[in-house]
Design goal:
The protein is mainly α. 75% of the residues lie in helices and 1% in strands. Strands 1-2 form a two-stranded parallel sheet. The longest helix has 31 residues.
């Protein structure tokens, strides 16, 4: 992948008017999400359902405070600015649309929502020079931090969790965001995108050293490209995904590993021996990706298999057919 130019606006470039408009739309979205959670939990966990209804009402009250401040400072017309319009800004995955969503998963998602909102308001408060807006944003940051504590306490009634468990979940989530997600994206790109050029070169030339050099160049080039793309796409401040350097290294290194895995066998002089070993390594790489998706990203095993293994085999077959033709 080649890093491209984003049409999104940087958070640091937003005006005070745009920051308030973004906060209003974010509170509207979060209010709707909490109401979806409340409806989902109403039958089996009425206490948790009531909590999410209360949290939705609080988010709505935040929205009203923000709108009143906006009218006071900037007038009646609120510009339409949403999370997806801002580079590096946190997004809400539509997990509330998943059927049979577990209470534990809802807990993790709600904790993430409150943490993201708290970080946003803290960052936004530091950016504004208007005393009234700064005070409001600071108050909202404190309120969001309080929500996270309240969520943990109520959910513990159902999940018998304690402080250590909460800390462990937080650490696991941060590990996934900083290392697993970027590394998985890199491994998938390196393993799959290099299949066609490496095997096309192999079958076209039947020269193992030439094939190795093509694979080496493709793997290193893809690793640098993917690493830079991951690092510059999000500074991690608002999204909470952690250091861009760590994410970039994880993505870049795993991209190179994914490509080099089936390029290194071509250091073996015998073409067919090298090719058979390379194909075997491809199978190992693809199934490793499926396992990671299933374990850490909670992707259903069958769906991950369809997406990764069958897709990878199709790319492999395309490379062999092109080279042999």
């Amino acid at each position: 992948m080649i890093p491209g130019f984003s049409h999104k606006k940087k958070f640091s470039d937003l005006s005070q008017k745009e920051v308030l408009a973004l906060a209003i739309s974010s509170e509207e979205d979060d209010c709707s999400i909490y109401r979806n959670y409340a409806d989902h939990l109403k039958k089996d966990f009425p206490d948790s359902s009531a909590m999410f209804e209360d949290m939705a009402r609080v988010e709505d009250s935040h929205r009203q405070l923000l709108i009143r401040m906006f009218k006071k400072k900037f007038g009646e017309v609120i510009p339409l600015i949403r999370r997806e319009h801002i580079s590096g800004f946190y997004n809400r995955r539509p997990v509330w649309l998943i059927k049979n969503l577990s209470l534990d998963r809802i807990r993790l998602e709600s904790e993430m929502m409150e943490r993201d909102a708290h970080n946003f308001y803290m960052k936004a408060a530091k950016m504004t020079s208007d005393a009234d807006i700064r005070q409001l944003l600071g108050d909202l940051a404190a309120a969001e931090a309080g929500h996270e504590t309240a969520t943990n306490k109520l959910m513990d009634r159902h999940l018998s969790g304690d402080a250590k468990e909460i800390e462990a979940r937080t650490a696991k989530r941060q590990f996934i965001l900083t290392y697993v997600q970027p590394g998985l994206a890199g491994l998938m790109d390196g393993s799959v995108s290099t299949l066609a050029p490496i095997f096309a070169t192999a079958f076209a030339t039947q020269n193992t050293m030439t094939t190795f050099l093509v694979g080496l160049a493709a793997s290193i080039g893809a690793g640098i490209s993917m690493g830079l793309t991951e690092a510059v796409s999000d500074d991690g401040v608002i999204s909470g995904r952690g250091s861009p350097v760590k994410r970039g290294l994880a993505c870049g290194i795993m991209t190179m590993i994914g490509g080099l895995g089936h390029a290194l066998p071509y250091l073996i002089p015998n073409f067919w021996t090298a090719t058979m070993i390379a194909i075997a390594i491809v199978f190992v790489e693809l199934w490793a990706i499926v396992w990671i998706q299933n374990k850490y990203m909670e992707t259903p095993f069958f769906r991950a298999t369809l997406q990764v293994v069958i897709g990878g085999m199709a790319v492999l077959a395309a490379g062999i057919l092109i080279g042999a033709g």
